[in-house]
Design goal:
Elements (H helix, E strand, L loop, with lengths): L8 H16 L2 H7 L13 H4 L4 E2 L6 E3 L3 H18 L2 E5 L5 H15 L3 H4 L11 E4 L14 E8 L13 H25 L6 H4 L6 E8 L9 E6 L5 E6 L5 E5 L2 E4 L7 E5 L1 H4 L21 E4 L6 E8 L9 E2 L17 E2 H11 L15
Parallel strand pairs: 1-10, 2-3
Antiparallel strand pairs: 3-11, 4-5, 5-6, 6-13, 7-12, 8-11, 8-13, 9-10, 9-12, 14-15
């Protein structure tokens, strides 16, 4: 929430409530621990946001089997292409990350968030450059309403993270999961390159997998879930997201003008196209891919729930914290009168700065970079 000279005393009181919540360093989990039964007002969504929302149940999220790619690669590429173009979301099974690793990663994330507040608070920070930090709502002071969620944020690459920076309770499994999920991300980018008719290493050569970070989200049971959100609708400011979710559910995507559930599939990982792959804000100094809306970065959200905690771990393939000043934009060789550029050129640094400044306000950051026609 940004205050101006015209801000009212009511605004100032709300700011003080936000500040007190932030300075407690206890997050949403801290509110649950003290037994609140009514939501603080800064979590409550306006009725304007709630009105007109429709939920559908007739659509099934695509599932792609990644087993035996040596023999089934063409089939997998075809399925990935269709999912990326038509939905922007799909789930993968037989992906090479062992079930035991998935389970231990969720256990480690939950264990961190359930540590005593005095232990967690040493990691609590809003410092942008810090590689390992715990925070509740990165956009707490910018968003119209806060989300019912705490996050442990870990930048894992491109510069290797010193394991000693990670909380001991989840240190080993975070390092192991990071290695395995990054390897999967590399394989997926190869399939996506082929889905666009390019060589398998095309996106890798453009460093789309060079950086990655892990976000371990914790959504406690909410006393009034109908009034707030676990995560406000948004699209991701990265190239690709790989999500590990537990069995509680609550993730939805906006597809065909309605909200569709993304139900947990045992052993599966959820994949979604990020803004940077949709707009293809990729280095413009060589012959490279610009998807130019061919792949879809779909808005999604997480519902708050009476049941909890819900735990998920998102891997963002991004150079978010190592932004380049190079110019990114549509590849001239792939443009034509029939396929004109959709987005203007920009730097990755400017794109990320805009995304962070507006927060999760329910609007796509891509709109800001679209060309007027």
């Amino acid at each position: 929430m940004v205050l101006t000279e015209e801000s009212s005393p009511t605004d100032d009181r709300l700011y003080q409530e936000l500040k007190a919540f932030d300075e407690s360093k206890a997050g949403v989990k801290g509110l649950v621990d003290i037994g609140i039964t009514k939501l603080p007002r800064f979590f409550i969504r306006s009725q304007d946001h709630i009105a007109g929302e429709t939920t559908g149940t007739q659509f099934t999220i695509p599932v792609v089997d990644l087993s035996d790619l040596e023999f089934r690669r063409d089939e997998a590429v075809s399925l990935v292409r269709r999912a990326a173009e038509e939905v922007g979301f799909f789930q993968v099974v037989n992906h090479g990350v062992a079930k035991e690793v998935l389970e231990k990663m969720l256990e480690g994330a939950r264990a961190f968030h359930e540590l005593p507040s005095e232990v967690k608070e040493e990691y609590y920070s809003r410092e942008m450059k810090r590689k390992v930090k715990y925070v509740s709502n990165f956009d707490l002071y910018e968003s119209k309403s806060a989300n019912w969620r705490d996050t442990l944020f870990c930048v894992m690459g491109p510069q290797p993270l010193d394991p000693e920076e990670l909380p001991l309770v989840c240190r080993d499994i975070t390092m192991e999961y990071s290695r395995r999920v990054h390897k999967l991300g590399t394989s997926l980018l190869e399939l996506l390159s082929e889905a666009l008719g390019l060589k398998p290493d095309h996106l890798l050569n453009l460093e789309c997998a060079k950086g990655h970070c892990l976000l371990s989200h914790y959504y406690p049971a909410c006393p009034e879930p109908e009034l707030t959100m676990g995560t406000t609708k948004h699209s991701d400011p990265d190239f690709l997201t790989i999500l590990l979710q537990d069995d509680i559910g609550g993730l939805q995507i906006f597809h065909q003008n309605q909200w569709i559930d993304v139900p947990p599939v045992p052993g599966a990982l959820v994949i979604n196209i990020g803004d940077l792959l949709q707009a293809s804000l990729i280095e413009g100094y060589q012959q490279l891919l610009i998807s130019n809306d061919k792949f879809r970065s779909v808005e999604h959200r997480v519902l708050a729930n009476h049941i909890g905690p819900r735990v998920s771990v998102a891997c963002f393939l991004t150079l978010h914290f190592y932004p380049s000043t190079k110019i990114y934009g549509p590849v001239k060789e792939l443009l034509s009168e029939q396929n004109p550029p959709v987005y203007r050129e920009t730097t990755l640094q400017d794109f990320i700065a805009y995304y962070d400044s507006k927060g999760l306000d329910g609007n796509s950051a891509l709109t800001h970079f679209k060309l007027l026609r």
